[in-house]
């Protein structure tokens, strides 16, 4: 495939969304064709799944395996409908979360079976992996405090216990240690501008074929 698949990952409030936008603007300025997308919710079907996954219904909690399958369904549709065609067309695809989120949240956070998660990730992606994954590393408390400051309120997953979010963070730490050539750690606790500069610096080196 001709394009580049760049994924942004991290715990709640790590700053992915604003960093992706800054990064897209920078790449577009260089004349690169960029697509911004996300999981869950990168397709029309996925938008419905995202709402089902993130709204909190006290009386009808989502079973953990249901949650896992819905994230996998969202991903399968996203890969087929958005990721593969755009990468084949030579675009740079910037994606907010991908398979590492399922390992961190459903694997480390929920404690679901890692083999099952790997199998579902394989089925959903057909083997499509990111060219590079930028992990915005921020303390769980700092990230959640940023989220609490948002006007929209916390969603079903953000409302999980601090212990859950710490397990998710451990997931990212372990993933980065086990895949050093695919996952790059960027300090997400710095100012928005400083984080963007660091991402820019890294990508300029990494994507040596930038025009
Ligand atoms: P965000 O896109 O606004 O960060 O929110 C998506 C939420 O869904 C976030 O809490 C992480 C969670 N999530 C999972 O638990 N598993 C997954 O596989 C993905 C993609 C997201």
Please tell me about this protein's structure.
There is one protein chain. The model has no long low-confidence stretch (mean pLDDT 95). This protein has a 5-stranded parallel beta sheet with strand order 2-3-1-4-5, with helices on both faces. Helix 1 packs across helix 8. By secondary structure, the protein is of the alpha/beta class. The chain has one domain: P-loop containing nucleotide triphosphate hydrolases (Rossmann fold), CATH 3.40.50.300. Helices cover 55% and strands 13% of the residues. It binds thymidine-5'-phosphate. Thymidine-5'-phosphate (TMP) binds next to helix 4. Thymidine-5'-phosphate binds next to helix 4.
The share of residues in helices is: 40-55%
Secondary structure: number of strands? 5
Residue stretches low in confidence (pLDDT < 50, at least 5 long) are none
Which sequence of strands runs across the widest sheet?
2-3-1-4-5
Number of helices: 8
What would the principal axes of the Cα set say about the shape? globular
CA radius of gyration is 16 Å
Domain module tally: 1
Structure ligands: thymidine-5'-phosphate
The largest sheet, given as strand count, sense and whether it forms a barrel, is: 5 strands, parallel
Question: What is the CATH top level name?
Answer: Alpha Beta
Name the features.
five-stranded parallel beta sheet; 211 residues; binds thymidine-5'-phosphate; alpha/beta; Rossmann fold
């Amino acid at each position: 495939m001709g394009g580049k698949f760049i994924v942004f990952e991290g715990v709640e409030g790590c700053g992915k969304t604003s960093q992706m936008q800054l990064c897209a603007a920078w790449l577009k300025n260089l004349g690169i064709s960029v697509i911004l997308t996300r999981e869950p919710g990168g397709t029309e079907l996925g938008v419905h799944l995202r709402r089902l996954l993130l709204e909190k219904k006290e009386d009808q909690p989502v079973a953990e395996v249901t949650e896992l399958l819905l994230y996998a369904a969202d991903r399968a549709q996203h890969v087929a409908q958005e990721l593969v065609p755009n990468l084949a067309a030579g675009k740079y695809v910037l994606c907010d979360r991908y398979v590492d989120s399922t390992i961190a949240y459903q694997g480390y956070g929920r404690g679901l079976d890692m083999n099952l998660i790997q199998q579902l990730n394989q089925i959903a992606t057909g083997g499509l992996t990111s060219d590079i994954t930028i992990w915005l590393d921020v303390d769980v408390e700092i990230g959640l405090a940023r989220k609490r400051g948002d006007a929209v309120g916390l969603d079903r997953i953000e409302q999980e216990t601090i212990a859950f979010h710490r397990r998710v963070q451990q997931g990212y730490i372990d993933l980065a240690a086990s895949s050093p050539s695919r996952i790059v750690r960027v300090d997400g606790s710095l100012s928005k501008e400083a984080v963007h500069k660091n991402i820019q610096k890294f990508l300029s080196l990494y994507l040596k074929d930038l025009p």
